[in-house]
Design brief:
globular, 6-stranded antiparallel β-barrel, about 25% strand, 9-stranded mixed sheet, about 40% helix, single chain, alpha+beta
Length: about 850
């Protein structure tokens, strides 16, 4: 797991799904379009409801977005928990009748464990109690049975619209965050398990009257909270400390003259101000104005709460317009409308803030009148209804009401206030609980990180300075065999994962024990940490150890990494200077290189690129590696990767006369060591991005050998020489085409014969001609063609069933317009018939299909069809 900014996470998610043929769309407005059931957009899928219900055709069957969302159902918890917000960004990917569970479950697992590098053993899955299909797919990607829970609550819906069973992905933040109960698991109300991502398998539509209708096509709707992912990857105890929110907290703290983290009550107010500043900025930017009803009331309530919390921490002047500047500085490059509307947003906020300051004064006067009444009646408790009226009608916060009453020796009927508040917010309350927590961030405070050394060429021995349980942030002194640990040494030859390159593997041997290193990572502070299992004896801090990196693997990685540099330069030479690296994977088995280019690379261009790279390999050039001041490196023409951050001193890798790049990775000393370079695939990786996968060295040899073996195998099967394989395949294709034509002609003749012989099998059911028949066809398409002909021939309703190869049952019902007018509904007929065969299906009144499982029941099902048809006819 590596540190990523909120912007990087957003970009990584969208790119991941772009690479999987998703159309990336910008966030929709917070104001719902043509949807009277929603007040404000509160979920990533909300703008796509017409696509899910089939009312509109989507611009693509696959879409990915990062959607602005506002929810206020639990606004009182904002600032009091680590995860509650009114504004948040929802990362999502959507399929409209395209892919389903079989695709999204492996993709989500890949994104979290590969792209974000979250520890797989810390991830837990919940599914609906009856979703056996999702269970099997999760198991197939490697999730153990004890990491999967079945919960009745795993059914997603938000008002009327698309809904269905869901599967949630949680991360275990450690027992120290939990409730201590032995049955603590995902779904528990404690803070141990943080929900990261919800995969909704949308197959129903909730109507406005609360009933459910099946959708025509199965869809996928997923949502992952950007702030939650950021808190995990940035190692923060709450969303508020992430780079998506904390700069606003810093601004508010500076204005108030307070320090965050010193007083819990102050922290709550700072968090509320920061959260609400984001909400009001985006809401006004999308055209929402403060009012006393609808979404305008939501905005007014949010803005006024921010003002009141400013007062609580000593901000007595107007300050919210300044928070807008901070929000826009953080998000304006992504949501450019904020920059364009900056003055407008600030003007609206200033006007509302001025108005509310007067409301505060008015509310104080009204409360003083109520206090006078209580004193006159010799009472000390203000009833909850009055307190709520002050809050709801005049915008006077109950907390301030309680404070003023306390100064007078009085109290407020909080239970009565809560009861009145609950009536108001009941319909908006969300059923799902938010959870907070933090990932493992190793405590390196006791180490002088600046003194640590990485010497990949010469380090053979060192000293263990710090050791941790692999999944615990706090250091330990020693550990025994069978324990997974993470160690930091004063010097190490192990290269840490980074820049697309995998980390080194190997062993660390101490006098009394041995660690099998399974990963090497770099911590945010720069320390290299080796992670692995003690396989022998005992390991202790202070042990003198010997290092043994798996050099065969490291050398294969070096071949692939240097080859990526050669590939990059060759692509620029062949395709043009616009080519820039957009991502990479460098492992021992292969390399993957993503680059900017706006069309498919032709076979001829690929051959040129491959030839150029191999010429550089055969030239046996020494690879030069040096550290230079960044400005000098740029003057020399070294290529920096777009979006990467560099220090004052950079490492430059040069293949003389051909390539010069900033790079901290592992490389060969001479290009000849790469051996051979072979491109194995080229494809789109997203809009304007192409991807090449290639192999070198041992991988290239294995690829050539495998290709040769395949061709020889084909030649053996075709009973010809290797050189004759293309001609033999061409001849077989011609033969196969002729055979297909013959089979199609024969099938047509059989179908025609079956149609011509049905007259004596037709029955008149209440004046509607009906035909029920078991037929012999070889495909579903053939069944439909036969159904069309028989329906037209008899002029009524037909029910046909066939058993295809493999025992698969296909059932078809078709009806003419006249038959439908008399009550015939093909969808209901086929559904009832299929049920007898252990299957299901449905469709339109005039045509429907279904499948069955029990071939022995086909005759029984068809026999029942006559009564089913007759029962429908009016």
């Amino acid at each position: 797991m590596k540190y990523m900014t909120g912007n990087e996470i957003r970009e990584r998610f969208l790119k991941f799904f772009q690479e999987r043929q998703h159309l990336m769309l910008p966030s929709a407005s917070l104001i719902p379009q043509d949807d009277p059931t929603l007040l404000i957009i509160g979920a990533g899928m909300a703008p796509f409801k017409p696509f899910f219900t089939g009312k509109m055709k989507p611009p693509s069957p696959r879409i990915t977005t990062c959607q602005k969302c506002v929810r206020t159902g639990d606004i009182e918890n904002v600032g009091r928990t680590a995860r509650h917000h009114t504004y948040f960004e929802m990362l999502g990917n959507f399929s409209f009748g395209d892919y389903f569970k079989q695709e999204i479950i492996p993709w989500s697992w890949e994104f979290l464990t590969k792209e974000l590098e979250l520890p797989a053993d810390k991830l837990y899955i919940t599914i609906h109690t009856k979703d056996d299909e999702a269970y099997e797919i999760w198991r197939s990607v490697g999730v153990p049975d004890d990491h999967i829970s079945r919960l009745e609550d795993n059914f997603w819906e938000i008002g009327s619209g698309p809904c269905g069973p869901d599967s949630e992905i949680h991360i275990d933040l450690g027992e120290e965050r939990g409730c201590g109960r032995p049955d603590c698991a995902p779904g528990c109300d404690c803070d141990r398990f943080l929900e990261l991502w919800n995969l909704v398998f949308t197959q129903y539509n909730q109507n406005e009257d609360g009933t459910y209708s099946p959708l025509k096509h199965k869809n996928i709707d997923t949502g992952a909270g950007l702030e939650r992912l950021a808190s995990v990857l940035q190692g923060k105890p709450s969303n508020f400390e992430t780079d998506l929110i904390f700069p606003i907290i810093e601004y508010a703290a500076k204005i108030a003259g307070v320090e965050y983290g010193k007083d819990p009550k102050t922290d709550v107010s700072l968090k509320v101000i920061a959260d609400h500043a984001r909400s009001m900025t985006f809401m006004i930017g999308d055209g929402i104005l403060p009012s006393n009803e609808g979404r305008g009331y939501v905005l007014r309530r949010i803005l006024r709460r921010a003002v009141r919390h400013g007062r609580l921490i000593g901000i007595n002047e107007m300050f919210l317009a300044g928070t807008v500047d901070v929000v826009i500085s953080m998000f304006g490059h992504v949501y450019t409308n904020l920059v364009e509307k900056r003055d407008y947003i600030q003007k609206v906020i200033e006007m509302e803030e001025t108005s509310f300051l007067r409301t505060l004064k008015q509310g104080t006067e009204l409360l003083n009148e109520e206090i006078a009444k209580l004193k006159a009646a010799n009472a000390t408790v203000l009833d909850g209804t009055t307190a709520f009226k002050l809050n709801d009608t005049f915008g006077f916060p109950w907390e301030l009401t309680a404070e003023i009453l306390e100064e007078q020796g009085m109290t407020m009927d909080k239970a009565g206030f809560d009861a009145a508040l609950e009536v108001q917010r009941k319909m908006a309350r969300e059923a799902r609980n938010d959870k907070d927590g933090r990932p493992v961030i190793y405590n390196t405070k006791a180490i002088d990180v600046a003194a640590l050394k990485v010497d990949e060429l010469h380090a053979t021995a060192g000293t263990i300075l710090q050791m941790y349980p692999a999944r615990d942030a706090q250091p330990i002194k020693n550990a025994t065999d069978g324990t997974e640990v993470a160690v930091i040494c004063d010097v190490t030859p192990f290269h840490a994962e980074g820049g697309g390159q995998l980390g080194d593997l190997g062993t660390i041997t101490a006098p009394t024990g041995k660690i099998n290193v399974t990963n090497t990572k770099k911590l945010p502070d720069g320390a290299t940490i080796m992670i692995g299992e003690i396989v022998e004896g005992t390991i202790a801090v202070g042990d003198k150890v010997e290092f043994a990196v798996t050099m065969s693997r490291k050398n294969d990685i070096a071949r692939n990494h240097t080859a990526t540099h050669l590939l990059h330069a060759a692509l620029k030479e062949v395709l043009g200077s616009h080519v820039n690296q957009a991502g990479s994977y460098v492992g021992p088995d292969r390399l993957r290189f993503d680059f900017s280019h706006f069309s498919q690379v032709t076979e001829e261009e690929l051959q040129k690129v491959e030839a150029i790279v191999n010429e550089q390999i055969l030239a046996a050039k020494d690879v030069q590696i040096e550290e230079l001041p960044i400005e000098e490196a740029k003057k020399r023409g070294a290529t920096a990767l777009f979006g990467e951050k560099y220090g004052k001193i950079v490492r430059v890798v040069t293949v003389p006369g051909f390539s010069m790049e900033f790079c901290g990775g592992t490389h060969v000393t001479n290009t000849a060591q790469i051996g051979m370079f072979k491109i194995i695939s080229e494809a789109s990786s997203g809009a304007g991005v192409r991807r090449i996968e290639a192999v070198t060295g041992h991988g290239a040899v294995a690829h050539v050998n495998a290709t040769e073996a395949m061709v020889k195998g084909l030649a053996g099967e075709l009973k010809c020489r290797v050189n004759d394989v293309p001609a033999r395949l061409e001849a077989l294709q011609a033969e196969l085409k002729a055979a297909h034509k013959k089979a199609e002609d024969l099938a047509a003749q059989i179908a025609q014969a079956q149609v011509s012989n049905v007259s004596d099998q037709v029955r008149e059911l209440k004046g509607v001609p009906a035909l029920v028949q078991k037929v012999a066809v070889d495909s579903v398409d053939a069944l439909r063609n036969l159904g069309d002909q028989m329906r037209d021939k008899i002029g009524g309703v037909v029910v046909l069933a066939t058993v295809l190869d493999g025992g698969k049952i296909s059932i078809l019902t078709m009806a003419t317009k006249d038959a439908v007018a008399k009550g015939v509904h093909s969808g209901n007929i086929v559904k009832a018939v299929a049920k007898i065969c252990g299957g299901g299906g449905g469709g339109r009144p005039d045509m429907a299909q279904a499948g069955g499982k029990d071939a022995s029941k086909v005759d029984e099902a068809l026999a029942a069809a006559w009564d089913i048809i007759e029962g429908q006819i009016k």
